TrEMBL record, chain A:
PROSITE patterns: ABC_TM1 (PS50928)
Record GO biological process: transmembrane transport
Pfam families from the UniProt entry: BPD_transp_1
Membrane topology: Multi-pass membrane protein
Listed PANTHER family: ABC TRANSPORTER PERMEASE PROTEIN MG189-RELATED, ABC TRANSPORTER PERMEASE PROTEIN MG189-RELATED-RELATED
UniProt similarity note: Belongs to the binding-protein-dependent transport system permease family.
Protein name, entry field: Carbohydrate ABC transporter membrane protein 2, CUT1 family
CDD domains: TM_PBP2
UniProtKB/TrEMBL annotation, chain B:
InterPro entries noted in UniProt: ABC_transporter_permease, MetI-like, MetI-like_sf
Name of the protein this chain belongs to: Carbohydrate ABC transporter membrane protein 1, CUT1 family
ABC transmembrane type-1 domain: residues covered: 68-280
Main location: membrane
Organism field: Pelagirhabdus alkalitolerans
Length: 290, 290
């Protein structure tokens, strides 16, 4: 009897403790979520306000008139449309070529049989450690000499080169777990090596390709230093650099600045809405492997 | 069969684009950076060879050491913050409801460009119209600091924005690693009467020590390379108070046209990043063998 009652009280204790623990856990999780989300929500609200509201009323207030004109204004007057399409063009070109080159290299390293494949992999992966600032001046003078400064090609080239290491790193992890049987059967059937790569191996890597595609897209879309240093014409600027120059001109027009920021953020958020699982997975894969 | 898979020409062809681009745009520039550091050069005019003068000047340049100190502080703060991220990840990896949603929310800031984040946080910190100081005044602090405009608070203020940007990244890495721990092990410990805290600190954390080590390297090396956010938020100011190595390098090279000296700083940055990585690997290795 006594034994039973002590067991019972113990159980009660622990379930009360458990509930308290759960409460604290949710408090932590919700607290972090508010910290992560509130600044964005606040940004969205002030992007719809005019200066009277921003500078005259509480920053916590909801917008009174919901000035969607702010968006219209920056899209046309602020050149946002040009910047936006430059970013799309550069991002898409760089991502497609990065994935192609990375896949070719990973196939040669992980699937083909030769002595120095380990060294080749090391050569590519060590590139991941290089701080881009170290290469900035030499790249600048190199592009100046060959006439690629202020040209989208210079940006596309460096985006590919600097994202190949991480992409190969993630791809090689996937390739190492891929069964060789289908490839071997294709060889027996007399398929050429190019056919094996393009029609058999490459399609099998679609899941990891989409993961690396999204990671590359986000990095390129948001890149600042290279685009800021190598492009000087306003008509060639990308969205990140364009925002910078726009803000410089409209310092006190918070509504317009807010609208610009939201425009730059929305494409990424929309992609995230549809592909969040892949993105979360990609972020984890990219670093856990490293 | 091996004949097809070890065709030297195909290996060469497939590896060429990736290795050529990394070689020309990543490795050659870092070597050239060290070489440019030997010259007095404004980027356009004649290059005057001055030997190691730039590098010896670097050793006594107080701005360089002050920037290095700031970079070191950011690295230290970022490493300490990992403990918090790990804590949140441990909470997330327990059986709380809605953890997938929390994970997805936490990653959102990481998807945005540093430029957009910096522009947003400049406004969060705005002494008069930002929500932070309005909030502080509302709860009774009459004279909240001007955050980014004051020498004493600027680095800390920037660090909070860095936390906002990267917290989700590290939390995702940790939860992905914690997912890999076998359920049986945790259940066995529960049966043995281990408390959740004991399970977390004695079982889960040691089991993901490899990933923790990776994140320490990422946080430290990442902090040494830190640029975009600081450049946009403060430009290294006020009065150099938030200067870091990358921003000092950029200023010397591209604002003051000291390409030689800028290259020397960039090269020092590379050496520091590589040294730190090696040292961390050494420290953690000797710990493991103990």
């Amino acid at each position: 009897m006594t034994l039973l009652s002590t067991v019972k009280t113990k159980q009660n204790d622990s379930s009360g403790l458990k509930r308290l623990g759960m409460g604290i856990m949710y408090l932590i999780l919700v607290g972090v979520a508010v910290f992560q989300l509130y600044p964005l929500l606040w940004l969205f609200f002030f992007s719809l306000k005019g200066n009277r509201e921003i500078f005259g009323q509480s920053p916590f207030a909801l917008p009174e008139d919901w000035l969607w004109e702010n968006y219209q204004r920056v899209w046309t007057v602020g050149n946002m449309d040009t910047y936006f399409f430059n970013s799309v063009f550069i991002t898409v070109t760089a991502v497609v070529l990065t994935l192609l080159f990375a896949s070719l290299a990973t196939f040669a390293i992980m699937r083909m049989k030769w002595k120095f494949s380990g060294i080749a992999l090391l050569f590519i992966m060590v590139g991941y450690m290089i701080p881009i600032h170290t290469a900035l001046v030499p790249l600048f003078s190199m592009f100046l000499r060959v006439g690629l400064l202020d040209n989208h090609l210079s940006i596309i080239l460096v985006y590919i080169a600097y994202h190949l290491p991480l992409t190969v790193m993630i791809l090689s992890g996937f390739y190492s777990q891929l069964s060789r049987e289908i490839e071997e059967a294709a060889i027996v059937d007399g398929a050429s090596i190019h056919r094996i790569f393009f029609q058999i191996t490459l399609p099998m890597t679609t899941p990891v390709l989409s993961t690396t595609m999204i990671i590359n897209m986000i990095y390129n879309w948001n890149e600042f230093v290279f685009a800021n240093t190598f492009l000087s014409s306003d008509s060639l600027r990308t969205l990140t650099v364009g925002i910078q120059s726009f803000v410089g001109q409209y310092l006190t027009d918070w509504g317009a600045i807010g609208a610009t920021l939201v425009i730059s953020i929305v494409p990424v958020l929309v992609a995230y809405l549809f592909l969040s699982n892949r993105i979360v997975e990609g972020v984890a894969a990219g670093s856990v492997k490293g | 069969m091996d004949k097809v898979m070890s065709n030297k020409w195909v290996i060469f062809l497939y590896l060429l684009p990736a290795t050529l681009m990394i070689g020309v745009l990543v490795y050659i520039p870092i070597a050239v950076s060290g070489y440019f550091g030997l010259f007095d050069w404004d980027g356009v005019g004649a290059m005057n060879f001055i030997g190691l003068q730039n590098y010896t000047e670097l050793l006594t340049d107080s701005t360089f050491w002050f920037s290095a100190r700031n970079s070191f502080y950011l690295a230290l703060f970022s490493t300490l913050a990992l403990v918090v991220y790990l804590g949140v990840a441990l909470v997330l990896s327990s059986k709380v409801k809605g953890r997938e949603l929390f994970r997805k929310i936490y990653l959102i800031p990481m998807l945005l460009s540093s430029v957009a984040i910096a522009q947003l946080w400049i406004r969060v910190y705005d002494p008069n119209n930002g929500f932070l100081n309005t909030f502080l005044r509302n709860i009774g602090f009459d004279n909240p600091p001007a955050w980014l405009a004051e020498r004493d608070t600027v680095l800390f203020a920037i660090f909070v924005a860095i936390v906002w940007q990267f917290a989700g990244f590290y939390i995702i890495i940790y939860t992905a690693a914690l997912k890999g721990i076998s359920e049986e092990l945790v259940e066995a410990a529960e049966i043995d009467g281990a408390s959740p805290l004991q399970i977390a600190t004695r079982i889960k954390v040691p089991l993901i020590s490899g990933v923790i080590k990776t994140t320490v390297v990422l946080a430290i090396v990442g902090s040494l390379k830190y640029f975009d956010l600081i450049w946009v938020m403060t430009g290294g100011g006020p009065n150099g108070a938030s200067e870091v190595l990358a921003s000092y390098m950029y200023k010397e090279a591209f604002n003051r046209n000291n390409f030689g000296y800028g290259s020397a700083i960039g090269f020092a940055l590379l050496i520091l990043a590589l040294l730190t990585t090696v040292v961390i690997q050494k420290i953690t290795k000797s710990k493991e063998s103990q």
